[in-house]
């Protein structure tokens, strides 16, 4: 195993470095999918906001946001709440 492989993976064996490298490739692919889904969510949220504002409503529906926060919190615990807050911020657009 080369020093570069050990530096990149933190592994102490070639086998472990291969496992880590393969798993990281999978994580990178998952991250790409997650980013795509977030972008799709942002687009759908923009449609909702346009419809709500067009009908005379407010841009943000706080009761709906609380539902989203609760959903993420129940599924992922406290870090889920932080993740949901970030998603909501991304999807609100500029207020």
UniProtKB/TrEMBL annotation:
Q: Which domain of life is it from?
A: Bacteria
Against Pfam families, the record matches this protein to: CM_2 (PF01817)
Question: Any idea where the Chorismate mutase domain is?
Answer: 14-95
Record InterPro entries: Chorismate_II_sf, Chorismate_mutase_highGC-bac, CM_dom_sf, CM_II_prokaryot
GO terms under biological process = chorismate metabolic process
In its UniProt record, a GO molecular function of this protein is: chorismate mutase activity
Which NCBIfam families does the entry link to? Answer: CM_M_hiGC-arch, PRK07857.1
| Name of the protein described by the UniProt record | Chorismate mutase
